[in-house]
Records
---
Amino acid sequence: MGLTNTSVGMGAVDSGLEIRKQAPTDKVVAIAGNPNVGKSTLFNNLTGMNQHTGNWPGKTVSNAQGWCKTGRHGYVLVDIPGTYSLMAHSAEEEVARNFICFGKSDAVVVVCDATCLERNLNLVLQTMEISDRVLVCVNLLDEAKRKHISIDLNALSDELGVPVAGTVARKKKSLDRMMDQLDDLVDRETALTPFKVEYDPLIEQAIHIAEPAIRAALCGKIPDGTAADAGEAAVGEMAEAAAISPCCDSPAALSPRWLALKLLDYDKSLMDELKSYLGFDILEDPAVSAGVEAARDYLKAGGLRPEQLKDKIVSGLVKAAEAVSRKAVHFQKEGYNDGDRRLDKVLTSKWAGYPIMLALLALVFWITITGANYPSALLSDLLFQVQDRLLDVFHYIGAPEWLTGMLVLGIYRVLAWVVSVMLPPMAIFFPMFTLLEDSGYLPRIAYNLDKPFKCCHACGKQALTMCMGFGCNAAGIVGCRIIDSPRERLIAMVTNNFVPCNGRFPTLIAIISMFFVGVAGGAGNTLLSSLLLTLLILFGILMTFAVSKALSMTVLKGVPSSFTLELPPYRRPQIGKVIVRSIFDRTLFVLGRAIVVAAPAGLLIWIMANVYVGNLSLLAHCSAFLDPFARLMGLDGVILMAFILGLPANEIVIPIIIMAYMAQGSLLEFDSLTQLKELLVANGWTWVTAVCTMLFSLMHWPCSTTLLTIRKETGGWKWVIASFLIPTLCGIALCMLVAGVAGRLA
């Protein structure tokens, strides 16, 4: 779901990639592969806790590298972003391509899914065009066996011309065998002869025309002063020179054949990286320029237009992958994936797909609400008992009251509230959501929502970033990196806040329980709370569609882009690993982020509640100033001030409201929702106030961490301001509408 300790907020700062070897002799190995092939599982099991994270140079794309050791070598493993192709269209694909091409790795391990090997071979073949130091790792052999798919690894190795290892990434023994083959590969003194993709004869001849000059240029064989208009004669001379002295020690160690193909199918981002890596622009070399131009003229004369070239290249790769797969993969049962397809017909159908999505969402909320109440109460009791002991310690040492108030009743009490309110629901919500992710259901959600987003001129991948926002809006912003189009990426960022994060759930659930369900508890009431919460979130999703449409028709005009979305096979989630990963990688990380921003907020709240001007505190003065405007929204000054002070962490909105109503100098907590409702009603709350408070909680400015993350992702303040104002103005307008209609009906 996009959460790491470097993925949001300040962690999104580009720190560059620094290879961290533990010894000078360590080998650098790139771990590549399609998404959903078990690449991360393999990487994590090999490296254990010996991992470092950062960002790729010039990109806000996270990298991970780890260290492991065999009997012969130490290895720095670099986990490349999952990609289907090295024909880069997104930041992740550019990173994968650039590291394989220019990362100076000693080998590349390409991880493949044994259940859909043919599709994965596309990336394998592209990688082998760049490097001959390739090890193909056919993973998920256990799933292939379950689906009655057998793979002849020896035949596959013979066809590809590179070593092939079969693994089940969860099992250490299979990884040990793979590492033995990796040792053999990096120790190999003679070059391998990988399978060469045969393209259309026109393309092959064009490569033959351009390649010799490129080979000579990489080896520094071209004499100075060659005329720019040397033409085919000069190309022929270069070909002869290259044939006499083949390039085997080029400084770039790049394949001249691959580079010829890339120069014909021009990609500006690749050319920029190539220029930076070589230290010169290879197309400024007269002979290379002449050779490439002659090759393009040949293609044109043969009737192959530039816009058709990429399609022909892709077609050649697909045909080659099919041919290799046919010789190595055998299906004992042709309908091995019929069960998945039958399930897809239900989960992705027009009539059943959407109700099932909403039902699962309601189920997740119901389990979260039901399961979080008791541990939240226990944790609250424990933390506030610690607070009492801290007060005793401060009084014992004779600390001034103002210091005791600031540190214990201010900072600590806010932190205790945030932890007790956030931790239990997150500890339930994140594992539940991760189970859906691991089972393969989340891509089906993106598939279902692709059409609505297309109608809004947005990207279907926005559905995945929206799902990430349920846990943390900052993570949803980071997840927008998967969207290729900059325009659509901005739409996803600006509208992500319409999905409530984990920090807003406590406010929404408490208000629903007090004013619309009842505070008696019980399975029936919690189920009704879940349904109402689901309807509220559905409204937030509809607002996402509406605002996305408005942006795409105004400041962010454009045509929706197409994208390839893999529907991975359904898998049985590893429940134990899901729970551990969710707790440590997601729950504790989000909680830690909330604590960091809540501590200074607690100090500010205490100061505002305890510094008096006249007979009123600063908090009361500010609330009174905001009250006339807040009344127009169906709120009051206290509620609006609580939302403003809740900018660092949405979890503290309700405690601030309680504190202001009771004119206390520190946050308070009630033993039951019944007591809290009595306080709110005594201060003028009605069902209209409750509805408007929920709507404004759903639609107001993002938290400070999310805003900071937007700043890091976009590189400026323009879209931070837009992301702040758009949901806020929508929330203000909607609350005014509801309050106005309710006032007329009263």
---
Amino acid sequence: MDSTPSPSSSSAFDLVSGALGRYIPRGGAAAAAGAGAQGDRTTRQRVPDNPAAGRQDQILGAVNLDKDLKVTRCNLDAPVFAGLGAVTGSPFVDLLPPGDVPTVTRRLRQVLETGEAHVARIQRLRRGDGSELVVSLSILPAAAPQEGLTVSVIAMATRLHLYAAETAIGTSLDIGETAQSLAESLLAWGDVAAVDLDFAVWTGEGVTGQAQGRIRLRRAALVPDRAWPEGYVTPGDDLPSDASRLLAQAVRRDDAPQAIVIPDRESVERVLGSPRVMRALVPGDRSAGVACIPLVLDSAPPVVLGVAEVWRRADCPFRDSELFDLQELVARTAHHVDLARQHQREHTQVLALQRRLLPRAGGDTIEIASVYQPATPDSAGVGGDWVNSFPLPDGRTALVVGDVVGHGLGAAATMGQLSMEARALLSAGLAPDEVLEHLDETVTLLDEPEAGLAAGYSALGSTCCIALYDPVSHDVALSSAGHLPPVLVPPDGRAGPLAVRPHPGLGAEFALREPFEVHTFGAPPGSLLALYTDGLVEDPAVSIDEGISRLADAVSTVHPWDALPQAARRVVSVLAPAHQRDDVTLLLARMIGYRKWDTATWRLPARYDAPARARAQVSALLRQWGSRDDTRDTVPLLVSELVTNAVRFATGPITVRLIRSGHGLLCEVGDTGNGNPRLGRGGLLDDGGRGLHIVHRLTTRWGVRWTDTGKVVWAEVAR
């Protein structure tokens, strides 16, 4: 290395190098390394600080580059720069980690072109053995353009590094990224840094203490990122049980968490003992020492969240001040790990609830597929998106999608309540607009202070869309409360959003409330309906209408023969951003419906002979369908009782509909009455209510649904 500046030169390199020459002892890094290599093995341990030696531990260096960014001169004689291969004629980028090469190269060329210095960039430099050194890098233009550049490097001062590390570690709520940031910061004190977390911490569970024999550590982070020996534990792997127990016992000596230092490989072998544990924990075959620092949550009693490990060459032992710095950094950042754990726990709980609400499957008349993609872990948290689909007892299918305001457990609680309430009301026969009216009232009640959910959270403005598919008429009845319009792709392939009149979200102020409307659309067999939440179509770069148009284009590419689950995932992958700040939810429904020859409908006047006419027509149809004898006896009697009840209590025409499905027969009798048939406890001599008791005995289930003109009583009979 050239460490003697020319007296006739006034370049930046010579000025910096000349200043360094007054402080760096002759022999530099080579002398320091040689002395360490010849020292006695007992000195390879934690070394007390020596003020005289501290003056020789310089942190400044300089490298001169030509216009091709190759090294022309170098002064990196300080011991801290030992191992940096800045050879004359070699590219400067050889000193950089591969991922930093494009950025640093761009900075170097920018200084060459503009002549403006770039100062104090925090950068890592690679040593020949693969370890890294954290420095503050400044790029200075030469006095004359033909001389190129001077790069000055300052090994990061401890206090500055502590501050920068703590700032970087607290920027993510993802527990893996938090552990990785901590490991990268610890690398400034060694050659390899690893963070191992208690498995309960990794999964977000609470940690109050570890019973002996049940300790389990998982590697959460490891730097530098390179190929490791076979058997070495890398991120995502569980440590062998022996290794977990040894590490936990080491940092909990005398039941108090504390840092430990194992100075060399011989001592490491004595402590670990097993060759299998050595392969799992020791990064390579060369002689190495390690400092193990517990991640301790400040509580009473203190709780150990995991262990941070810093490995370095045995000829460079840990000094007291370095060990104190390591403990300070880990202590400062342990609470960030715990915050990430709490976020992970909430994230997991909400995700489990939302996945329970996802549709399981369709039926004979409709095919359903859904995709739920939660927000990225370091966002505000899992949102309140929910989607559900379920068959109704009368043969229709309900499709429901909603978006609760906010994130986290508060939104999840509201989401679960609204989803279950919607399902119960729809199963009871209420129309979509009536269900939304009840949900609107529920959201208003949830926001009252007495409800206990108003502190720091409000569900006002949540949205919901309900669609009911009738497989006989092939119609979809839809109501929306502030939700984005569904996209319908008819069999001819012309996709587009449904023309749904906008409506305020749930819980809107009284002055903004309007009656919920029911929109009815035709959905012939082969149609594809897409319900979604705003996270799928919102993009800051485009308008919401353009986002919906992009969704329509993506859904229109789904072929009728495509498997619907794969098609749904493909649509989401095309539209959803890589780093999403909101949940993404998509529900695809392919309409199948009943075949024409599996349904029959009759309209009868409300007269005394209506039951007999209904029995005759139903009996003829059952013979045509080839039904069993017991079915041909049961169904006409059932229809006769329902028609008799309609004639007795209603006016206007009566509609009889019979539907043949894969699992049974569905009988429907509609009238214009508004009475609610109820099964009562009649006495032996009571004539009223006998018909409903007969219906109850003959069917597997029955019920009532309400229409704009009256009601429909339906009953199902097993085939």
---
Amino acid sequence: MNAFVLGMRLLWGSRRRGRARFLLMTLGSALGVACLAAVLAIPSILGAHDARTAAREPRQGTSSFLYQEFRDPYGAQPLHRVFLARARSGPAPVPPGIDQLPNPGEAIVSPKLAGILAANPRAAGLVPGRVTGTITLEGLGDTEDLYAYVGTTPEKLTEAQELGGFGVGRSWREIVDPSTLGILRFTLGCIVLLPLVIFLSVCARLSGESRARRLAALRLIGLSMKDTLRVNAGESVAAASLGAVLGIVGYVGVNEVMARVGLPGLHWYPEDGRPSGQTLALCLLGCPALAWVVGQFSARRAALSPIMVRRTGERKQPRSAGALPLVPGLGIIVGYCALSAMGKDPSGGSGSSLLVPSAVLLTGAGLIFGLAPVTAWLARRLAGLAKSLPVSLAMRRTEVDPGSSLRVATGLVLLVFCAALTQGVLIELEQVSRRTAPVQEYKIPLSGLGPARREALREVPEAQAAVMSHSSWFPLEDSYAPRADLVVATCAQLAAATERSTGCVDGKIMQLRDDRTTFEHDPKAGERYPFELKNGKKVHFTVPSERVDVHPWDLSVFASGALLVPPELAPPDLADSAGTLTLISDADPATIRSVLDGIGAVAPTSSVDPVGIVIDSLAQLTVIRSLLAVGMVLGLVIGVAAFVVSVADRAMERRGQVTALALLGARAGTLRVVQVVQVVLPLGVGLGAAIVTGWLAESSYLITGGGSVHWDWEGLPVLFVCALGVLCAAALASVPMVRRHIDPEHIRRD
């Protein structure tokens, strides 16, 4: 305790410089703890969402009620409706969030859905009945949840099931799939937690040289080695503890704001994101503990060899063993890349799921600890070859103190490395979540769509084409009667929406034939099929002998056996009951969301079938994108903060050296060039290594994932541009850190 008090008194007595250092350490720790709390809150936010959705899931059993669920897209959002009907007298199970089940003709909806129904009268058909209440927080996944309990009668339920109660052990519709959640946690750990540890270590070692000299002076006047270490660690722990408290307070405030704003695809209640007991313990105890360990390590040299510190003795060169983790890490990564280049498929198996993450961690560790010895070796070589005075001074200084490059460049180097890995994760998830076809179809029943809405749907942004299709009439009592479909479209529309189409002639009715597909009831040439008209009459179409050789993309309205009817030959009054309007667009996830939103705005009550995709998968991809974007932003903040703090600290620590050079006649331009080169060299070496190793790590992840994309050539220029931007910004930020101000106090001897 006495050593701690002594450290605080020395800090307070060091006047403005010591107080500024303490303030910088505190603010740095606060920023780091706030980022740590944000990352730790993500699992609790997702868990709280899934727990509430699991508690409201209807389950089969025995009760007095029947139920039927509907889950449809409303725009790009899932709309969940539960229709409930009393079958007999008896107690009624009640889900969380409401007091009682709605009666026939009544509905209880979520606040978001209530707002939609009030603002858009056309959407009232989605929830038949009078809205009598809203669902509270306990019964909703998040603030944007579209959910409704609708009361009805048993005869109106076509596929009714007996309701046993509400609540299951695990939700069937988790906001992020468990297998994907593991990948997400690992990626967030790489892009946020690893740079965060480096940043907190940097904050705990601010003003390392001056603090070491001060501790050495205490050691020389008789303070014991243990007390010397305690003096240094006490100051670091005090700053880290105060910063941890400020960081938690800052995160709580940001959470209250962001919970009301939300992220694309992800919304939550403020209670979900508030730090738990474990998070508070980790932040309030873990950060000071890390500061204590770093303080003990950084002050050991001053405690063991105080005379060498006071006389600025020769420093030990960094050990090249720090780069050893690169050997197994790159060995595994390059091995997978080589197998893929030779045409072999190493995907699958449990070994890859363990080897690739291990290789990524080893490679990242090698980048961190191998930067200092590589920079020292390169600086020694360049110093012997350089003909320029500024370059020679910069290289000699980097050779003497290569460890400072670790603090300056590591955060940004890790950021670029993790950015490459994040690109791979997004590519892999998109391959799993989206269709393999380059086009996407959306089927909308014509019943309920008037001419105005049909025309408006044709004008939906991002929709490239709109075609109408009809199924032939058949008697209800004979569901096995032969059937045929006709598609009203042109040859150009057919070619744009299929993989291949040959032999199409405009102005003629032709049959689509796919030699890869066979059907039990395949229309044959010469057969006649009736199609119902709006007035109840029927018009017959004869299957022509002329055929179009077509290969549709997966499931499509242009299926084999369908009749291709030109718009000018199609009857204008075909019945809507068996008709479908199909919109066609690109298969890009952003385009799909835009088209679904456009359909929801025009025809909110119509059922939409986005062929080949599940709306939940699209929503999950949006959530993952948002979380990874948050992780990249946090990683960028941490990396930039570590760089700024380190460069400012280096500038303050080297004021004595700058003063000595200025007294010897060095110009201001020379000093600035020295400072810029000292920053740019280790950063450039680290960024170059991060691009190469990060791209290889991304490729190995894609190769073992089993997707069709193994090499992300499109993402490589993005990494180069980002690295170049970081390098230029770092160089410009280093210029004002040097002042040619001659102050003899900076070079005086104690």
